[in-house]
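Ticket #4471: structure output looks truncated?

Reporter: J.K.
Steps to reproduce: submitted the chain below (229 residues) through the standard prediction queue, then opened the result file.
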Amino acid sequence: MAANPDSDFVALMRRHNQRLYRTARAILRDDAEAEDALQEAYVQAYRALPGFRGDAQLSTWLVRIVANEALGRLRKRRRGAQVIALDADADVAEVPMDPDNAAQPERAAERAQSRRLIEARIDALPEAFRAVFVLRAVEELSVEETAAALGIPAATVRTRYFRARALLREALARELDLALEDAYAFAGARCDRIVARVLARLASLRADAVAEHQSRGEQPSGGEAGEPG
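Returned output as attached by the reporter:
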């Protein structure tokens, strides 16, 4: 960090903001608290930068700082509750998860809805899996980079990432099954509207048939709607 540390640090923050925010958000599951954790982590990083020796990549070092800050906040938030540390050696129980068209507004709305669904399902992952999944799948870090950033063995990263993907597939499949049950739904007001329109059409056909019979001087036969006798 050379002559103008403030401008250099601004550039550093802008370059790493998204990855670090996603890390904090994956741990805390709260937008506002993730921002607070990110802010505090940056302050810590700024103070520690003179001692940064480059033993790890800068991005990995920053992820580790924000992960520690987020975990610390999680422990404070859950006083007395068990918090699974990211570096825990014990295996984690697989708890079930809680149940160029870009310019087109409807496509954008569909993507936004899909994004919210995926974010909700990621939030529902067990704590030990979320940060691993976000860094591997969303930020596309390698296994080794993720392990270094979170301070866990590479084998643990592989295991948790595999399980996280399986849990997400299962949860999204359930969502799809529920959505398919409602696909092309035709009930309620839509059903009532069609019934009313058909009845109105039948009444019109009957009236037309009566008028045609009368014009011929015939008596209506009372046959099928719209079919003159």
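Triage note (M.O.): checked the attachment and the full token line is present. The longest helix spans residues 154-181.
Status: closed, working as intended.
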